[in-house]
Amino acid sequence: MSTNVDFTKFFPHHDLLIEIGRIEMAMENLKVRADDERATLQPRLESRMVRLRTALKGLPA
């Protein structure tokens, strides 16, 4: 009896979760940035977060 598991199907899910965590941390760190820098970075980070979550939802269960 073999219990081989194909982990390659889990990699995209894991990679997206890691990237979402990075974006969340970057968004938390915006608080210490200058106003002009925050105004530039926040929309980019929010857009990236939407794309990552959309990709995550699109993965097979």
What can you see in these coordinates?
This protein is mostly helical. It is built from two helices and no strands. The chain has helices at residues 11-29, 35-58. Helix 1 packs antiparallel against helix 2 (35-58). The protein is elongated, with a radius of gyration of 16 Å. The relative contact order is 0.16.
Please sum up the structure shown.
By secondary structure, the protein is mainly alpha-helical.
Summarize the topology.
Elements: H1 11-29, H2 35-58
Helix pairs in contact: 1-2
Largest sheet properties: none
- Quaternary state of this entry equals single chain
The number of distinct β-strands equals 0
Helical run tally: 2
What distance lies between the first and last C-alpha atoms, to the nearest angstrom?
25 Å
Jot down its keywords:
61 residues; mainly alpha; elongated
